[in-house]
GTPase Era (Limnobacter litoralis), 170 residues
Amino acid sequence: KCGVVAVIGRPNVGKSTLMNALVGEHLSITSSKPQTTRHRVLGVMTEEVSALPTQFIFVDTPGFQTKHSSALNKTMNRAVLTALGDVNVILWVIEQDKLTDADLKVLALCPKGVPVIAVINKLDQLDNKNLVLPFIEKVSGQANFAAIVPVSAQSKKNLDGLKQAVAEHL
Ligand code: GDP
Ligand code: MG
């Protein structure tokens, strides 16, 4: 299995940390997969997921990594929409127990028809584990997600669960 995975989310939710944790030592420098110029490749993960050889190509979407996402004009939004329409899976990254306007603005840019996985990061910061389920419930009301996966990028918690969820939607 092979697919292109976009990682999106407001600044500081842990996108880079998550990418590093997922790609880690599995980073491969060369890939036979043709790349579109619409995306910046952040890393490539090649390993077995659920006993199947699997490759994820993680990409950034131009115009997306801005501190001023609220000021994105219509043209830029359209460009992001076009670029995101080109990927197999979108990882929409948020922080545990936080659902902000900025998060929802990013989510709103996801085109219809591409599976979006909500990644709830920084699970290690949650003292009361009883809060995970109600928060997942709250998140699930925001869109028709392909999956909602709590992780800790920093503590490398549930990364296998996330890889499986991505692989299921390639
Ligand atoms: P980005 O702006 O979305 O790329 O976020 P970064 O990956 O740069 O992370 C922002 C901050 O959150 C950094 O200080 C990270 O160390 C921290 N961080 C990222 N993932 C986790 C996590 O799972 N748990 C905790 N406690 N901190 C995290
Ligand atoms: Mg970053």
